[in-house]
Every structure is written in C-alpha cells, then in structure tokens.
Amino acid sequence: MTDRQPFCEPDLARQVAGATRPVRSILDSALCGNEVSLDEGETLFAATGADIAAICAVADHMRAEANGDRVSFVVNRNINFTNICYMGCRFCGFAKRAEAPDAEWLPIPEIVARAQEAWSRGGTELCIQGGLHPRMDGTYYGEIVQAIKSELPQMHIHAFSPFEIWYGAAKTKQDYRSFLTDLKSCGLGSMPGTAAEILDVEVRRKLTKNKLSAEAWVEIIRTAHSVGIRTSATIMYGHVDGPRHWAAHIDLLRSIQKDTGGFTELVPLSFVHTDSPLYRQNPDQVRAGPTAAEVDKMHAVSRIMLRGWIDNIQVSWTKLGAERARDMLSAGVNDLGGTLMNESISRSAGSTHGQEITAGELCRIIRSASRVPVRRNTLYEIQEVFDDHDPVDLEPLVARNSHDPLAFLEMFPERRATR
Ligand code: SF4
Description:
Elements: H1 10-17, H2 21-31, H3 38-45, H4 50-67, E1 70-74, E2 76-80, H5 108-120, E3 125-129, H6 140-151, E4 156-159, H7 162-172, H8 176-186, E5 190-191, H9 201-208, H10 214-226, E6 230-237, H11 243-260, E7 263-270, H12 277-281, H13 292-305, H14 317-320, H15 322-328, E8 335-338, H16 345-348, H17 359-368, E9 372-376, E10 382-385
Parallel strand pairs: 1-8, 1-9, 2-3, 3-4, 5-6, 6-7
Antiparallel strand pairs: 9-10
Helix pairs in contact: 1-4, 2-4, 3-11, 4-13, 5-6, 7-8, 7-10, 8-10
The structure holds iron/sulfur cluster.
C-alpha cells in the first residue's frame, strides 16, 4: 500500500461508504493509489445495485484527477474502403460477399477524394479500415496511404486493424515488423486497436473461429508500438463474455502498456446484436449486447484499472447514441471520439445512432454535462479549447436519421463550465 491518503470529497466518501464490503475495500485501496488486480477487477465488473454508483463515482473522481473538466473529440472521417470479406467472423454484420448487391469497393481515387473532402471540412484524421478482400494485394494498404499523403501531407492516417496487418503481412510474405515499418514509411500515423474483441481463446473461437488469435493480436500491437506506431485499445463486450473475461482483457492491455506505452486510449465497444449472425443463429446462447449497468461498469472499471497507464477512456457515440454517451461522462469517460462523417461498421450491424455528429453537436453534449469541449488530434494533443467560443459548424455530410439524435438535450440547458 502506498502512503497516499484516500480522497475525501464528501459525496465520494458517502458513495464509497454505501458500497458492500468487498467493493468498498477495493475502491478505498484504489483511492489510496494501489493498482486494482485482475481478481479485484472481476469483483468490480460483477458488482450490482449501489456498488455500481460507488464505482462510477470513483471513476469520475479519477477522470477529474487525470483530465480535469476537459472532454475531447477529434474531427475525423471514417473510410471503410471495402466490405467484401470472407473471413466469416460470426459477430460481424459488416462483411459481404463480392456478388452481394450492397458489396462495396472504393478505388484509390475515390478514397483520396473523400480524404480531400474531409480536409476541406476541418478533418485532421482519416480512420481507414476495410474487410479482407480475397483478391486484394497486400501492397494495397501502403498504396492507399501513399496516395492520400501525396495529396494531403498533413492529414493523419489512423488505419488498418491488427486483422488487416495480419492479412497484409501474409499476402506480402513479410513478417509483422517489416510490413508495419513499410506502412510507416508510406505515411501511416497510427492504428486502431480493433479486432481485439475479447482477448480470450474460448471467446474468440466462438466469435471469430480464432482466425486472428489473441497471441497474434498482442504480437502485432506490441510490434506496432515498437516501430513507433501508436494504437488505440478496444474491447467488444456483451455477447458470450462476462466479468472474468473483461477483467483479464483490461489487465492484459495494462500489462502491454506498461511495456510499450503505445496505447493512446481505450474504446469500449458494445456488441450490436441486431444484424449479427452470431446472435441471429444462437439467440439462446448469445446476449443481445450489454445491459445498461454493464455499459456503466465497463467504462468506470476500465478507468479505475487503467489509472496512470491509459488515462484516456473514450465512449463510442455510434454504439450507444448521444444520450448514453453523455451519461458516460460521469462514469470515467473523458473523450467522445470523432465526428466520423461516414460510419458503416456499427450501422451494418444494426446500430441506428447515425453516421456523423458535427463538432458543434459534440460541444453541445459536452457543455450539457458542465465540461469544457476541446478539439484534439489523434495523439491527444489539444488543438483548440472551446471555453468561450463555438466551433465553426458545417452541415452534416450525410443524411440524418429521421429522429434527431440530440433531441434529449432539450432537457439540459447549455452551460459553460465554471472553474
Ligand atoms: S470482422 Fe472484419 S475480418 Fe471479420 S468478417 Fe467482419 S470484416 Fe471480415
């Protein structure tokens, strides 16, 4: 135990005091600066009732310690350059066969045109991912990056999941290190740490037939960090998993971060079951996504377990919607992700939370929680603080859903945070 004293805000102390003994003991210890172990993390993830409020209060306290009252976002664009993929991951509602009427393949000039449009709208990041098209050359990944960088040298390219790196390296007969080093020299800035799902052999077997093993995911991420490519970290939860898997997954991410320091943030991704074959074929064995309490706990316990190692916890508004994303700002979250402009992956799985949110809308959400909006770049360097002005807002690039995703804000008058 360290010699730090527990933090004694009256509300926080009251909420922790109201928790059951095992949870209270873990939270008191965490507030004293001690690391939450895997077993303790499992206890927190399994918590119920008033314990959840205590966990969220501690996570919110740790968020304030690490990030103050700022909540960040990035102006970015998603480009899913193909949805043609034969890997057959059972949870995936995105992949299509080449002959399907809604199969998509974006040629490089179209990808560059979308990148230019994003740049003209203030975008600083492109998030590029695609299916593993069976006829695609492994060199195509580098060609995409080079084509964009030759037109937009300042644009940050955040691209290619570890599954795509695994595929590209196999296709080019390179090891991960040389494939990633080549991509970096083409101009790759960072990578999404997607395709992690749950880093557990049994769960992965059910989700992905373990085609990309947990070991391979970890090796690719560690190699990326070692060649200077930073990545996000993700967890996809709410299907055939549970508290033990979640705690082990977060513990593994923490151990990687202790060695490499390469993760920029954690993004919990709730399983969207609606159009997922995994759920449709096994509705008795697969859960229809996480419960509301599990969503709260995922963000809050991750904040507590990763304290001091990964201090950016992002909520995915495309998975949860704007209202629940706002709720997560009180459960350890300090980042709302990106504007996206074209979100395809969650939408294909049945998510109805829209494809784009503007910078102005993100600022409204953040201010409604009495926090200060800040625009960041991909590596979490602050670009602009909106403490006394609003962003120049543009019309959304894509058509909206028929419902207004921000209608709930009518209940929350806009407030600027006071310090
Ligand atoms: S998750 Fe990715 S690799 Fe798996 S089937 Fe879907 S697009 Fe293909």
